[in-house]
Amino acid sequence: MDVSDIFQNLNEPQRQAVTSESQNLLILAGAGSGKTRVIAHRVAWLIKGVGVSPHSLLTVTFTNKAASEMRGRIEAIVEEDMGNFWCGTFHGISHRLLRSHWEEAGLRREFAILDSEDQFRVIKRVAKSLGLDDAKWPPRQIQWFINKQKDECRRSKDVEIGDDYFAEKMNQVYIAYEELCERESLVDFGELLLRTYMLLKHNEQILQHYQRRFKHILVDEFQDTNEVQYQFLRLLTNGGSHIMSVGDDDQSIYGWRGAKSENINRFTKDYSETEVIKLEQNYRSTEIILSAANEVIKNNQGRMGKNLWTEQKEGEQISVYSAYNEDDEARYVVGSIQTWMGLGRNLDEVAILYRSNAQSRVLEEAILREGLPYKIYGGLRFYERAEIKNAMGYLRLVFGREDDAAFERVINVPPRGIGAKTIDVIRARALRNESSLWKAAEDLLDTEGLTPRAAQSVQGFMSDFDKLEEETEDLLFKDMVDHVIQSSGLIEYHKKEAGEKGRTRVENLGELVTAAADFESPETEEETSELKLFIDHAALDAGDTQAAEHEAAIQLMTLHSAKGLEFPLVFITGFEEGLFPHKLSIEEPGQLQEERRLCYVGMTRAMEKLFIIHAEMRNLYGSETFNPPSRFLREIPVELTLEVRTGGNIPRQQTRSKATSSGEVPDTEFKLGQMVAHDVFGEGVILNYEGQGANARVEVSFNKSKTKWLMVSYAKLRSI
DNA sequence: TAAAGTGAGGTTTTT
DNA sequence: CCTCACTTTA
Predict the structure, then answer these.
(1) Residue of A101 and A524 predicted with greater confidence
(2) A4: which residues sit within 8 A by CB, 6+ positions away?
(3) CA of A439 and C1' of B12: distance in angstroms?
(4) How far is CA A252 from the centre of its chain?
(5) pTM assigned to the model
(6) Which of A51, A75, A190, A484 has CB 3.0 to 4.6 Å from A150, enough for a Cys bridge?
(7) Active site residues of A
(8) pLDDT digits 0-9 by tens, A158-207
(9) In degrees to the nearest 10, what's the CA dihedral of A391, A392, A397, A403?
(10) Residue nearest to nucleotide B9 (CA to C1')
């Protein structure tokens, strides 16, 4: 291969980014500007053009899928063995480091990874043991709290509680949870990152080793990094490595789970003499779609500033359809798809996007009525399905009896007559002995601490495992998986289940055997059993939602999951206030801006044609709601849109004209977005209103206080 | 121990 | 209104 091939089809800024010799590089890459391409080509350039060994490179992505795609693209360009090239997610990389340095990290050699569900169960149990009522202290919330602390790099002792009673209680659970995980060597997702960070921070030798090794670090989706990840990168680059971060502040849509797009700004400050390159040429969308998206995102404050442009043709206007209700919305979407197909286009070019998963059902039914194939993203992924988790539980327990999460999961699946009562007894014994559940069960059998009937069941359960282990000792990994699943009784159990459900479950179990047979274990420095690697793989990579079917199908997904994808034809549905922006995000300006970015992400998925649909009436939680069209619709210049109203006279809601015209609060001096001052609450901005004239109320987000609804006639607001 | 009933809760999601 | 998780009941 000729090195100059690497530059083919790159534009000037892209080429600059690929070949830059700067120590620190920040690439601000707009939607559709070829950022993945830049990373792949830079890696290729470093290897082929500069002569850097693949061994000295580290590439970080956000999903496993992105990582494998990246690797594939790079291999396609370099056409040579990439040797020991590290390319993975932050979690994957952390995991690898912890496996290599388990001892220094304070873990057992065979530490187990808790996925979210495992973590949830553990937390629930811990909270209960602390005597917390789970109605008053929802375990979900505690889990959220703990994960947030870990994202922010805080152990329980670092949490600042102040006089917050809730935080205090939740932190108590965090403390107990931490102790339990420590005792049993359990590592949740957040812990993978936090512990790796601590490992590097407190082990100068190990840190130096990796600092020397990774001469170039490349980070994708930088706007989605959280605090630990940022700190981790800081440590690693401290020894003079080159770093390139690629991101787009306008596409930061994961702030709610700890991502800090400020890390982009921070980067230019923390890394001296950062070279900043902007990729602003968009290769994806028509000019109209792009301008509309630009106009929307312009309304956000504090952007880094980027202006996407394109050489593509103007294209069609954005069709805006006011549906009568959600059924009409779905009908219209399906009808438009049929028109598209009538033009000789394909179904897999089409995506239907929505803000929340609940919206998919009506759309799905409409598609089904027309007998069109479709594929829904989201929902349970392969390794998250109950039957798969059960089977994995068997494998985990065969591998190591100390795995409590697995023990609890499978002790009575299929039913063996071991009920909640018996499990409680075992759990209590485990707590007292500070031992695993398995050991506690052994202890109870020895000391006859169980009723005879329970004892017999438990004994049966345990000897099953000893037998399984014996039988599979000499088997190859894939045969072993097969054998364990066959002998577990899970297949018979699911076969008995009624209808379709049981059948797909049995099929899934077969699929798991196939997955194990196809499993390629990654090379590691430590010799680890293939089974363990497979178990970790299942925890870290939940697998695609659906096995890729090759039939062309309409793609249905949330706006979030559409990030990174592109489609010739895109529908954004449910473009209504309260739904999008979601009502829970309207109050707080920061969250509203994230909704706007989400809108930007959604719009920029479209290559050729974009439809925006809002329903004037929607059934939500059993009652009819009348939502005005989304404020984001107002932000798109009228000349870029085409209002469609097929299907006759649809009565237009009055709210629409009012809400969309100018944002003025009728018969008052105020309008949406305006800054106002209040005698008591200080300064703030008007977010919303209802009513008019003397009855008008406005919702104001105050800088120093919470968001409040105020009567205009009483509040004595002053415009500023 | 499994099936029917009750009640809260209902953004977004990866690892 | 619909879904799920959990509780009650045979």
Answers:
(1) A101
(2) none
(3) 41
(4) 12
(5) 0.82
(6) A190
(7) 35-36, 220-221, 251, 605
(8) 999 888 888 888 899 999 999 999 998 999 999 999 999 999 999 999 99
(9) -130
(10) A621
